[in-house]
Q: What sequence folds into this?
């Protein structure tokens, strides 16, 4: 093998090893105070996506994660549940990373304003420059720059299984606060629905080194009760692939 080939293969195996570890963490992303504080490297990922001829999101699903169509299928489920039908005017996403859900969300609806809270600065800059979204200062679990009851759709994908319990639940309170009456809250968490004995064995034997907080579990009942106490009822839940097993996407609607 050539030196270049060896370099590429070392990079690939490094990426695989790290992805096996957390599903996503490679590059330090700044001020995340709650758990895994790294994200995949911007330049290398963009280069690899360009070489594969795919969008960066499809490249991550297909090549890096080995789950082609994973983002698409979650977006399809959300469409079938009517999440985009109301034409959300304001969308807020926590931890969009490469923007693989953001890009597909923008194909489903045309919000006037799309706010992001993202700790990985190079990715946040890329999303601002590519999609015209608005990156807001991201500190721990606060959505302070966003006013109460101002957002029609609040979403976070593959974020709350990479941060600590406190980071996630502090965001939950904030998500309920910023959502407009009638608005939707969509996020995934690794609930007991995803954790039958076979799945736990799969994580234990194939889930990487267990570095950091990934994959962090979250009780489903706690989420449902907490959001109910904040005026948001559970509308639906469905499974989506994550790492070596799955995560559960929950859809809440804030009461009018
Ligand atoms: C596993 S990645 C998922 C990225 C993207 N949502 C996706 O599914 O492709 C987790 C994302 O959350 C970001 N992140 C980590 N801690 C955060 C925090 N406290 N607030 C906002 N974003 C955070 C990371 O930088 C990264 O972009």
A:
């Amino acid at each position: 093998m050539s030196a270049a080939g060896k370099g590429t293969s070392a990079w690939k195996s490094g990426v695989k090893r790290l992805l096996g570890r957390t599903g996503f963490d490679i590059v330090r992303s700044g001020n995340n105070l709650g758990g895994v504080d790294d994200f995949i490297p911007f330049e290398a990922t963009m280069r690899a996506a360009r070489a594969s001829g795919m969008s960066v999101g499809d490249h991550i699903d297909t090549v890096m994660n080995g789950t082609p169509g994973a983002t698409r299928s979650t977006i399809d489920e959300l469409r079938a549940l009517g999440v985009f039908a109301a034409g959300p005017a304001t969308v807020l996403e926590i931890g969009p990373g490469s923007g693989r859900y953001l890009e597909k969300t923008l194909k489903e609806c045309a919000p006037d304003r799309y706010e992001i809270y993202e700790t990985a600065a190079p990715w946040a800059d890329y999303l601002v420059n590519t999609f015209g979204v608005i990156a807001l200062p991201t500190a721990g679990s606060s959505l302070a720059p966003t006013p109460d009851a101002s957002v029609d759709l609040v979403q976070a994908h593959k974020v709350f299984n990479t941060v600590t319990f406190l980071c996630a639940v502090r965001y939950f309170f904030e998500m309920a606060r910023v959502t407009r009456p009638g608005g939707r809250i969509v996020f995934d968490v690794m609930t007991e629905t995803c954790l039958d004995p076979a799945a736990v064995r799969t994580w234990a034997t194939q889930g990487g080194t267990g570095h950091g907080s990934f994959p962090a579990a979250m009780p489903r009942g706690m989420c449902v009760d907490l959001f109910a106490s904040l005026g948001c009822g559970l509308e639906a839940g469905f499974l989506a692939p994550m790492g070596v097993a799955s995560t559960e996407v929950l859809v809440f609607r804030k009461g009018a």
In short: The radius of gyration is 18 Å. Residues 1-37 have pLDDT under 50 and may be disordered.
